[in-house]
Amino acid sequence: LIMYQRLYRSVRFLSGLAVQRQQQLSAISNLSGISRSSQLCSHRLMSSTSSEADAGAPGVGGEADDAQKLEQQQQEVAALAKRCSELQTAMDQLQDKYVRALAESENTRRRLTRQAEEARIFGISAFCKDLLDVADVLAKANETAPPEADPTLVEGLRMTEAQLKQVFRRHKLEPIKPDVGEKFDPNQHEALFEVPVAENCQPGTVAVVTKVGYRLHERTLRPALVGVVKYT
Question: Which intervals of the chain form a coiled coil (predicted)?
């Protein structure tokens, strides 16, 4: 950025200097024209007895000096214009690199922000997997509780399971429970076995669910274990 600013100031300085030189050239050209007009008038008013060589010698010398100065000024302007063009090209290249660096920096910032967010969300994946085993045990205990079991104990198990499910929902940990007849999805389901074609079930669909799966923030944490209708 500092180099870009320096180049920008150099281009502006050289552009201004070139304009000044051009103005000086215009002024010299105007003065040369006035000088030639004045000399022409003086020549006409001079006596006819004066020789043309004597009258014109000083004017030719002055015009030669003016022409030499004009050529020198033109060379300086051309050199300044060339240098200005070179600096403008360098400044354009530097500006392009600067814009590319800004874009790359922004992309890096977005990528790091996304990675940090994913780490925050999915950093609890291992802990959630351990809790799923606890949830499976509680669900199995509630399903197989005998009628003669202590009602207080059974109610405590149900309340514990309900509280655990509430915690799961709070952290976007949702169950995957495919319906019978639902198309098999390898991203969410894991086929343990195949079954013959059953009534109201098409080949390649879920026939039975043996274990509920879970997803964390729409990412499959544990696929549902299912049996799939066999293709004939």
Answer: 70-111
DSSP 8-state secondary structure symbol assigned to residue 183: B
pLDDT class of 149 with cuts at 50, 70, 90: confident
Rounded to the nearest 5°, which phi and psi values hold at 174? -115, 145
Query: pLDDT tens across 47-70, in order?
Result: 444 444 444 444 455 677 778 888
Mean of the per-residue pLDDT values of the chain = 79
Rounded alpha-carbon distances, angstroms, from residue 124 to 23, 74, 130: 75, 76, 10
CB 214 within 8 A of CB 172: no
Q: Are 211 and 136 in contact (CB under 8 A)?
A: yes
Which secondary-structure segment (H or E) carries 209?
Answer: strand 206-211
Mind listing the pLDDT tens digit for each residue in 167-180? 999 989 999 999 98
Write the DSSP assignment of 46-80 as a string of letters. S-TTS-HHHHHHHHHHHHHHHHHHHHHHHHHHHHH
For the CA atoms of 139, 142, 143, 147, what is the dihedral angle to 10 degrees? 170
Cα gap 104→98, rounded to integer Å? 10
Other C-beta atoms closer than 10 Å to the C-beta of 91 total 18
The single residue listed with the structure tokens 């995957």 is: 176
